[in-house]
Structure formats: C-alpha cells, structure tokens
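Field reference: "sequence" (input) and "structure" (output). Example, Ferrochelatase:
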Amino acid sequence: MTFFHKTSRIAPPPEGRSGVLLVNLGTPDDTGYLAVRRYLSEFLSDRRVIESPPLIWQPILQGIVLAKRPFASGANYARIWDREENASPLRVYTRRQAEKLGERLRADGIPVEWGMRYGQPSVKTAVASLMDQGCDRIVCIPLYPQYSATTTATANDQVFRALMTLRRQPSVLTLPSFPDHPLFIRALAESVQQTLKALPFKPQQIVASFHGLPKVCVEKGDTYRDECERTIVALRKSLGLEPDQMPMTFQSRFGPLEWIQPYTAPYVTGLPAQGIKRIAVIMPGFMTDCLETLDEIGNELREEFIAAGGEEFAIIPCLNDTPEAVDLLEGLSRSALRGFARE
Ligand SMILES: C=CC1=C(C)c2cc3[nH]c(cc4nc(cc5[nH]c(cc1n2)c(C)c5CCC(=O)O)C(CCC(=O)O)=C4C)c(C)c3C=C
Ligand SMILES: [Fe+2]
Ligand SMILES: [Fe+2]
C-alpha cells in the first residue's frame, strides 16, 4: 500500500475541526460520445451497480453497451444541458446545494465540499480540500433519501477508498438515509403545493416515480423498496392524499433483468384509458433534477402519455437548491455534527 503523498500538512486546531461532504452520483463532463462513454464506463463497471462477474460483464459493457449507448445518452443529455453553466443539471444543483449549505454553516467555521461517485469533481479531491481547510473529522452525506447498496453504499465506499491512502486519516461519520425525515417530507410537500398552485390544471393523480432497482437486489436484502414506501406513506399523510391519488411506481429500467414494479411508463400510459388524462409526476428518490427526471420523465414520458390520449402533464421539480432543501441538509448536518462533540 502506498500512501497519498499529498496528504494535507495543515494541522487541525487542538479541539478538532469538522467539515461536511456531500456525495452525489456523477454525470458526464459534456454531451459528446467520449465524455459520456467515460462516465458510463466508470458507472457501469462498479460492482455495487452491476454484480455480474467482470470476466462476463466487461466484454459486453466495453464491446456492445458502450459502442452505442453513449450516442443515445449524449443526445438525451443535450436536451437537458444547462448551457449557461455548461454542465448537467445534476452537477449544477449539487454544487449549489453545497454552496448554500456552506453559507449556513460558515459562521460555525464548518466548511462544505461536494464530490461525485463517478467523474468530476472527485470524492478524493473533496476530502483533500476539507483536510486542507484543517478538518480532522468529516460528516459524509450521500445525497440519496432512500438507501440502496447501488447508490449510498458505493458513495461511502468511495470516501473510504480516498481515506485508504492517507497517512493522517480524518474521522468520518456517514449519514444514514432519510426516507421519512420530517424536513425531507416538509420540503417535498412544499414543492407539491407550490407546483400545483402555479399549474393551469388540477391533476387527477400525482404519480410518485422512483428510480428502479433490479428485483434481485431487494431479494438479497437491499432496503431501497421499503424506504421508498416509507417516503410515500409519509408524503401522502402530510398532503392528506389516499394511495390512489398518489400511486408509487419505478422508472429507469436498464438491462434484461426484472426490476421492482410497477414500472412507471406502462402505468402512466395506461391512465388515459381509465379516464385519467391530467397528471403530475413527482420523483422523490432524486435530490436534484437530472437526466432521469427532466428527460426520461419530463420529455419522454410526457410524449408517451399524450400519445396514449393524455391531455395535461406536469413534473414537480426536485428539491434542488430550494430553501427547504437547504433546511434539510442543514438539519441533517447539524444533528450529525453533534455526533463528533466531546462531552
Ligand atoms: C444496473 C444499472 C443501474 C442501477 C442499479 C441504478 C440504480 C440507481 N440509480 C440512481 C440514480 C440515478 N441514475 C442515473 C442515471 C443512470 N442510471 C443507470 C443505471 C442504473 N442505475 C444508467 C445507465 C444511467 C445513465 C443514464 C443513461 O445512460 O440513460 C441518474 C442521472 C445521472 C445524470 O447525470 O443526470 C441518477 C440520479 C438511483 C437512485 C438508483 C438506485 C436506487
Ligand atoms: Fe441509475
Ligand atoms: Fe433513464
């Protein structure tokens, strides 16, 4: 094992210093074939995401999947790209969440950094930056409200991988998921109410669409589906809605395996035939808007719903950098930071 030679030499104060690290999934640097290929290759080579043995999976991934998919995905990213920031929405909003949380914690001398599990800015750079600011303890917040090994666990793995090469290791506290945390549910309810108020129509249903997961992951003990259920039960309760007014579905299927059901697209395209022609869709599994919310739902699903006879379709924005989202991140950070306090 070689040590990371750039381990910060900035000494923390004697009483210690805490910092906060937000970790999100990652996103390509641009919409071109090579950038999208690089991103997908790193993402889909993660054995927390695709569990097949590399000897079998890598030839399929490198030879078949990555020959074509980056073209299609790149075109999809181009439709949602933030041209002013020249970055994907996931990166723009994650950065703004970190900046706004940093403003809230600055007076307490607590720096905030952000890193991506795949691609840039890396988790390793974010950890180094916190240490350069004198931190010897880090609160790590994986930006996934519901736990999954494919997201939360691999984000934490990446933080510990960065620590593996450090001579002077900070103490790390990884945050548990927060599927029905009151501040999370309050922020979601607020985004529903704000969006509905501004809509020119009244939705007959608000479909809650979560990112999907291969069914086998749940069978092997991933708690993701149960945690999605906890979110939706709490959100319905806070809005006074019945299950048929806010059904739960799962989107973004990838590959040949069976994923957890019901699938979003067939569910939604079946609604007009039942007389439900005006809907809104909320995606409470995503802390920031991204390809899966803006394009897969906001563009593709909208077109499919209208083609199936639907009349009105709206998406409820993710929490992004709203004050309620920052309240949530601040609440989570402050309660975790107390875990570092010495009596
Ligand atoms: C087996 C493959 C995948 C699993 C398992 C998976 C789980 C999972 N993903 C998210 C959140 C996001 N996924 C995003 C994109 C995305 N996801 C997969 C595959 C799996 N996800 C792919 C191939 C892609 C890339 C997009 C494409 O090529 O079509 C994103 C958006 C990223 C962005 O840049 O905007 C998010 C966010 C969760 C929460 C999850 C498990 C619960
Ligand atoms: Fe995904
Ligand atoms: Fe997708």
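The chain has a mean pLDDT of 96.
The chain has two domains: 18-178+323-339, 182-316.
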